[in-house]
Amino acid sequence: MRVLTWLLCSLGVFATTPPSTHTVHEKRDGPADAWTKQSRAQKDVILPIRVALKQQNLDNGERFLLDISDPDSPNFAEKIANTFAPSKESTDITLEWLQVSGINIKRISYSAGRNWIEFSATIAEAERLFDARYYIFKNTFSGDFRIACDEYGLPQHVREHVDFVMPTIQLDGLRPVGQFGLFKSSPPSYTDLNDLSHCKNMMTINCLRALYGIPTGKYNHTGNQLGIPQWWDYLSAADLKQFHQRFTDPKIPPDVFPEVINIGGEDANDTAAPTAGRSESALDVQTAYSIIWPQQVRLYQVGDSASMDQTGSFNVFLDALDASYCTYQGGNQPYTDPSYPSPKDGGYVGPLQCGGAPMSNVLSISYGLVEGGLPRFYQERQCHEWMKLALQGVSVIFASGDNGVANRQDVCLDAEHGHVDAEGTRFAPSFPQSCPYASGFSYLILVTVVGGTTLRDGSISGGEKAVADSMYGMSYYSGGGFSDVFARPPWQASAVSKYLSEHAPAYGKSVFNSSGRAYPDVAAIGLNMPIVLQGNDATEGGTSVAAPIFASIITLLNEERLEAGKKPIGFLNPIIYKYPDMFNDITEGKNPGCGTEGFAASTGWDAVTGHGTPRYEKMREVFLRLG
C-alpha cells in the first residue's frame, strides 16, 4: 500500500501551541463499526486540512428561505442574497493561532467568503496542532482506507470560532442509497411502448405517463437542464444510445448525451462504463431523459474511481457550485483539495474545480450517508450549505433509501449511544436526507405483494402501495424515519404530529426520535424501470428510480413556469405540505428494519411514503398559480 500525499507549499518550521491549552472539540461516540483500526499513520504523510469557521446570519438564512418558499409570501420565488461569512474576529483569531503554531501565512488559503481555512500539513504537524493521533482505518465491506483520529482538540479560545476540522474523526463514506443488484439483466422484451398491459413487468415511459398523468416534454428553456451528480460511477454513451432507441417515446436522437461537468476526477466516457452492479448513472440519466426530453440532462461527474466510499465528496460538489469557495488569498488560484487522502494508488491528485460550475434549477441525487456515522458539527455545517442552494432557487431531490428504517447493508444504531452498530436496534436515518432543506423521496410499487410482479388487477388503475419486494433476491423497503440531529421544521409540524398521534407505533425514545425532521416528503414508482446496462436490456428498482422521476416532474413544471414568464419553483417542501392534494395518498405497506415492522403507511403523511405519489395536473395547477 502506498499512501498518496498532496504537497501544496513548503512546510516551514513548526512551533506548536502546547497541548495543555487544548480542549476536546469532537470525539467519536462508540466504536467505528465497519471500520478496523490498522496502524498509526505515517508521520510524513501530507493531509489537506480544512478548518470550517463558524458562519454568521444562518438564522436569517433560514428565515429568508422560509419566506421565499412560502406560497403566501409576497417574496415567494425570490432569491435573497446575504452574507454568511464568518466574523472578522473568528477569522483573525483562528489565523493567529495557526501562525503562532508554525503554519506560515503563505501556506494558508481561504475562500473569498472566508468560510473555510485551508492548508496542507504533515501527520506530525496535524497531531500536534489538534492534540490527536491519526490512524489508518480499513472498511470491512469495501476494503477502502481512511486516515482519521478518534478525537481531536482545539485551544479553548479558538473552539468558539470553529465548527469542525477535516480530516479528523469522519469515517463513514458516501454511497448510492440503493442496494447493489436490484436489477434483472434479462427482462421481458416489449417492443410496443404504447401497450399498457405489461406495466406490471416493465414500467415503460408510457406506463409512467399513464400512472401520473405526465405529459410529453415540449420545452427546452436554456438553463433548465436537470442536474444529476454521480460519484465514481460512469455513464456509457453506447448504453445511452441503445436506451434512446429502445425505451424512449418519442425517440430521442441516438447521439444525445448529457452536458458533462467534471469535478475533481475522471471524464465520463465509455472506457469507464459501469461494472456489474454499478448502474447508478445509467438508471438516473436514462430515466430522466425519457421524461424531460427535449430538455437536457447536466451530468456532474464528481470524484475518481480510486476513491469510492469517500466521506467528504458532497463538499467537493458543493465547493464546485459555490463561486465563493476555493480562492487563494490574493491569488484566485485553484487549490488541490481531495476531501480525504486516499491511500490507494491512482487516487485523484489534480486541481479541484473551485466555483463556477453551472447551477441547475433541480438536482436529483441518489447517494447518501448514515447519519449516525457522522459528527453532528459536520452535518449541521453541510445542511446549511444545502440551505444556501435553496436560497439560490435550487430544488434538491434525494432518494430515501432501500432498507426501510435501517440503512445500507441493513445497518442500525446502538440504542444507548446512537452510533452505527450492525446489531443495533435503533432506527438509522440517512444524511443529507434528514436535512430539512433537501426533499427526501420514497419509492413505491404498483399494488404488489412481496415477490409479485403484477398489479392488483393487472392495470395502471389498480393503484399503489409501499414496496415490500424480494424479486431481486433481497428484500427492500421504502426508506423513511426521523432525524436524530435535526429538529422537525415548521412546514411539516402539523402533518407529522397528526401521524404520530394517530398512526405511529409506540416504539419509544430508544428506537427513534419522534421530534426529529421526518422523511420522506413524497414518493414515486420504484420497480421494474427499464434501463440498458453494458449493452443489455434490464429492469431495475429502488429509490434511485424514484428520485429522478420526481426531479424530472419538477423540471417539466419549471419548464411550464418559465414558459409562463415565472421563475423556477426552488425550495419545494413548504409547497408540498401546504397542498397535499397534489399527491395520491398511499395507505398500504410498511418499511421494516432493525428487528421491527418499521412504520406503516396511512391516510395523510406517513414515514413510509410521505404525502404520496405525483398527480401531475394537480401539481401543474398549483405551480402555475403561484407567483
What does this structure look like?
This protein has 627 residues and is α+β, with helices and mostly antiparallel strands. It has a single domain, classed as Peptidase S8/S53 domain (Rossmann fold), CATH 3.40.50. β18 (412-413) and β19 (420-421) form a beta hairpin. α11 packs across α13 (616-625). It is globular. It starts with 21 loop residues before the first strand and ends with a helix.
Q: How many H/I helices?
A: 13
Tell me the β content: 15-25%
Approximate shape: globular
Report helical residue fraction.
Answer: 10-25%
> Structural class, from secondary structure content?
alpha+beta
N-C termini distance: 58 Å
Overall mean pLDDT stands at 78
> Structurally, how many domains make up the residues?
1
Binding site for Ca(2+): 585-586, 604, 606
Signal peptide: 1-15
Protein name: Peptidase s8 subtilisin kexin sedolisin
InterPro entries: Peptidase_S8/S53_dom_sf (IPR036852), S53_propep (IPR015366), Sedolisin_dom (IPR030400), Tripeptidyl-peptidase_I (IPR050819)
